[in-house]
Amino acid sequence: MKNQCAFIQYLPKNKHAHYGIKKFEVFDSKTNYIMYIELYSGNDYLKGDPPPFTEKVIIPKMEKSNLLAKYYHVFLDQFYTKVPLSKKRLDRKTYMTGTVNKNSKYLCKSVTSAKLEAKESIYFRREETLLVGFRQKATRKPVYILTTACHAEDKLIKSKKGLESIKPIVIDKYNQYMGGVDVSDKSIYHTSCSRMTSKYWKKLFFNFIDIYLFSANVLYVANTNKPLARKDSLVAIVDSLATPEPQPAVGPVGDCGDQHQITHLPRQLLRFCEVCSAKGIQKKSRY
Questions:
Q1: Which residues contact 29 (CB under 8 A, 6 or more apart)?
Q2: How large is the angle between the packed helices 200-222 and 230-242, nearest 10 degrees?
Q3: Is the pTM here over 0.85, yes or no?
Q4: From 184's CA, which of 70, 209, 221, 273 has a CA 20 to 30 Å away?
Q5: How high is the mean pLDDT in each 10-residue block of the chain (287 residues)?
Q6: Widest CA span of the chain, in angstroms?
């Protein structure tokens, strides 16, 4: 896939392919509905405005998705979570929660440098922004989360396996609503229509078809009392699109008999219709 296309990027950490296409996606965390997609084009994407990369990515995507100034709660991973971004989001009436790198700027050093024990949490609030540090096990590193929507409180949480543990509320919400992109990618992978090809535009075409079908299935399930399984609904869509439509009759309109073979004369030649002549009617035709 290596060529002069701006969308194709070098991915050194990707094991199965070092070249690929990056895209930004905005998801509804509850329904996994894909609301906005934009391709990343490298240096062309970074030209123009001076704001940091994270602000140039997140805020414009929210504006194009018509989600700003509506007090929505946005969940991010640590690549996009920054303190200045959280303040700008709050100014635009939008809440934000996301994991943050401990070496990121403007974080409280007393929190990031604290040695936490297992099941221990630490909080630090500056104005509307709350920094949370939590260590689940002694064998794991602490996790740091930045939020403008939650308050400092621990609660008893019961896992799917029935295990109970005390965690910060923001950790529970992050685990509950983060990961919509992974869920959709996993669902699309099992019912993908993609084909093996070296043409990047074909890969994009098939991927967009998968995304559209996935989003259509989300809307179908949300508005149907007894929806079909996703695979059955996809088969029904394919059958409806592949069903041939009735073709209009070709040739002159009229009763010419079952044995009359209709053929189109070359150029603009005209002939008398034999069937019509037998009925006493002289009619010229190109058939």
A1: 75, 177, 178, 180
A2: 110
A3: no
A4: 70
A5: 70 75 86 86 69 80 87 87 85 89 88 89 90 90 91 85 86 85 80 82 88 89 88 86 66 52 64 70 67
A6: 107
Cβ pair 234, 217 in contact under 8 A = yes
Question: Are 124 and 152 contacting, i.e. CB atoms less than 8 angstroms apart?
Answer: no
Could you tell me which of 186, 173, 181 has the C-alpha nearest to residue 61? 181
Contacts of 129 (CB under 8 A, 6+ apart): 83, 86, 87, 90, 146, 147, 148
Q: Is 271 left (phi over 0), alpha (psi -120 to 50) or beta?
A: beta
282 in Cβ contact with 276 (< 8 Å): yes
Q: Is 59 helix (H, G, I), strand (E, B) or coil?
A: helix
Provide the token pair at 137: 């096990």
Residues present in the chain in total = 287
